[in-house]
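Form 7-S
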Amino acid sequence: MTAVRTLLTAALATSLSACITPEPVTKIVEKEVIVTETVMVPQPTAPGPGDRMPTGRDVGVRSSVVAPHGAAATAHPLATQTAIDVLKAGGSAVDAAIAANAMLGLVEPTANGIGGDLFAIVWDPETQQLYGYEGSGRSPKGATLADIQAKADEYMDGEMIPFHGSASVTVPGTVDGWFALHEKFGKLPIADDLSPAITYAREGAPIPEVISYYWHMNQKRFQGSVESGALEEFDNATETYFSPPPREGALFKNPDLADTLSQIAEGGRDAFYKGELAERMDAYFTRIGGFLRYEDFASHTGNWIEPVCVTYRQDYKVCELPPSTQGIAALQMLQMLEKFDLRSMGYGSTDSIMAQVEAKRLAFADRAKGYADPDFAGIDPQMFIAEGYNAKRAELIDLSKPMPNVKAGLDFPAADKKLEDGDTTYLTVADENGMMVSLIQSNFAGMGSGLVADNMGFMFQDRGQLFSLDPAHPNVWEPGKRPFHTIIPAFAFKKDMPGCQVRAEPIEQACPFEPWLSFGLMGGGMQPQGHVQVILNLVDFDMGLQEAGDAARWEHRGGCEPTGKYDDPACEADIGKVLLESGIPTDTRAELEARGVEVECCQANGGGYQAIMRDFESGAYIAATELRKDGIASGY
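Output:
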């Protein structure tokens, strides 16, 4: 009996990362009596990783990169290498970011490409300013809500806009974003920035493990839409991407994309939005019965916007882009979490996760009703982070149980579970002059809409799927309007306390905030949740940069979304569920369930993470990348 209990105890002790389920176990009671009862035992686990040296970093799977001159972190090794090559050739961090993004559109079309949108935050050391860019495309001007509703009625039971096909397509904003960023901050000719991607598109680009996995998954996703007729045309996508989808280790060629990028390199942004390429896209949508037309491309423009920032724990300032993105949700969560002593609670503890999840639910309730294109909604983003607002909201949080009903905390003029998934690429680059770029780019869900224009080599995004169909909602589909956006770059400042030259009292006020961290996370609605977890890992839990990204994450799903009805009591009463990665301790999972939280192990959308941090003492960059993706961080 003692031996049986000892073995069971040892098994449990070595399986903190295993999902625990009830199983019948036979055990000996006294001497000859045998009974069967149900106890909790660990499921068999796959072999784990090896051991690292005891450096004091308990979570990270590898070391961060330290670089004195420049650094880059992307989701593909070739894109990171391309960025470093551009920096060494005299390009700015923006040149390098454009080059890396163009390469990612070739080697990671499962997440991004010139058929999608782009958002960026740039720290410019020359002007000592933080700049935001919103490269978001708009809906077709010639379509109506009735046109889009008809597509929803035919293919989605009227509840939502189809993910695949022309109803979800908005004007791609990426190319415009490249040229806007380059005009302000570029040093090399943009043709030089695009040259590496063009060369590899013709000669063959290497496809690694995770990207290959998603590539094959996307082929399966499209089949249902092809069979239902929601996807008006799929032959071009099949020829470009699925003949067959590349395996790990394959070299993928895309000569059509090489030709398209070459025309952009030679003719500038107008080649894409007003020239022969725009005419070709117009002809394609006309042929398949889609909605976009030449005028939609010709009238497109992105926007320089002011990032929105909040102070956290006095010595840190975190910055995001305002709506129509969801970045401000991360700031709302941080303001709520100021109330809690997370350091004492500890990383991965039940109280810590409970506080974070409930803060997320409150922030996302505002997100559901108030995050929309400000040109149409007229909602001031500062209202979401007004002094005292989120502190007051945090008073609703009870660590012993989930809130039974969560409503928006503000009244907005005049929101389904479709945002959990999102395939996006995030990259960051820093140069020797101190410029830091935080850039995110996406086709939204999967590879995008499934539509590839004739001989152009890229897929159009399905970002328009994120509009609401409710006429009362600020995010309702309207002609010429930007949809709600999930993709968000982030940036953070820190007070360099040891480096302060002014010794006024109090010292916290004398020290200015210094540019510290360019970072981001991928994955639909996970992004603001992930941004908060990274900041907490660095600030409250004293993790290193690589460790902060490698640490196991939680993800909450449920509640209202900006894509549903404006008033929906059902989603307000939806407590949702918390998905945990396997590294969250089993006793935390059990205690969350005891407090009334529905928990799933181990299906969290951990997202993908990249970051570059400035070391104030040495002046070097520290760069980290994502264990959940294929990429690397590098520097020189």
